[in-house]
Design a protein that fits this description.
Layout lengths: L2 H9 L6 H6 L8 H5 L2 H11 L14 E4 L6 H9 L40 H14 L7 E6 L6 H13 L4 E7 L11 H7 L3 E6 L3 H9 L7 E6 L6
Parallel strand pairs: 1-2, 2-3, 3-5, 4-5
Helix pairs in contact: 4-5, 4-9, 6-7
């Protein structure tokens, strides 16, 4: 990393900078609540939990983070900029014709992005496949994280992934569900129970409380995949 890149990374390396970074992004953004609902969970993951850096973005031993809730990526881009994955000067061009930062992340264009995402119901099944693929390669240390929205749990593909991962004992698999009360069919308070019924380790926390998020993200769960349901304000609040 160049001296200028290190300086830029350090200058924006803090949670307090994130609102300013998000404020650099304008344009025809139709999913603002989808972005802001993820901000705290994303920050805690990238700042304190994920074992991945710009320098290790291609390291086979890195942790994998998959943003399934990709239809509102502003917070994701802000965190990636704060941590030095993407240049800060990309942010003002967010969503423009020739910008790498589209309204859905593109793994080919966005450094640090593991998947292209935004279509509901894809990220968790891909995460299950990623965990299985790492095992098949003999890579048992990397952890796989996926962030989904509660409305995505209306999609049957996610329930197939949930039902498979628990009995398969994929304990390197971690799911964060952002619960902003936007699901059409989920029972209130029933998200964690759905995962537990399939053999997952599950916990529900305040999605704005960084210490609660960190404790839930790092809790041991031997032999079982882990889900953390992060409750935030309702989407229409």
């Amino acid at each position: 990393m160049t001296t200028e890149a290190v300086k830029r990374r350090n200058e924006y390396d803090g949670y307090a900078d994130l609102p300013g970074l998000m404020g650099l992004m304008s344009g025809d953004e139709k999913h603002g609540p989808a972005a802001t609902s993820t901000l705290d969970a994303l920050w805690v993951l990238y700042d304190r939990v994920l074992r991945v850096t710009p320098e290790r973005a291609d390291d086979p031993a890195r942790d994998r983070f998959l943003l399934s809730k990709g239809h509102g990526p502003m917070a994701y881009y802000a965190v990636l900029a704060a941590k030095g994955f993407v240049p800060v000067d990309w942010l003002p061009e967010f969503g423009s014709y020739d910008s790498p930062l589209g309204h859905h992340p593109d793994r080919v264009l966005v450094p640090g992005a593991e998947i292209g995402s935004g279509s509901l119901g894809h990220g968790l099944p891909i995460a299950v496949g990623t965990a299985l693929g790492l095992q098949a390669q003999g890579l048992y240390d990397p952890r796989v994280w996926v962030l989904v929205g509660d409305a995505e749990l209306d999609e049957g593909s996610n329930h197939e992934a949930i039902a498979y991962a628990g009995p398969a004992g994929l304990d390197r698999l971690h799911t964060v569900v952002i619960d902003n009360s936007s699901a059409s069919y989920a029972l209130p308070g029933g998200i964690a129970a759905r995962f537990e019924a399939a053999g997952w380790s599950a916990e529900t926390v305040d999605g704005r409380d960084h210490e609660a998020l960190y404790a839930a993200f790092t809790a041991p769960h031997p032999g079982r995949p882990r889900v953390v349901v992060a409750r935030v304000e309702p989407k229409d609040a």
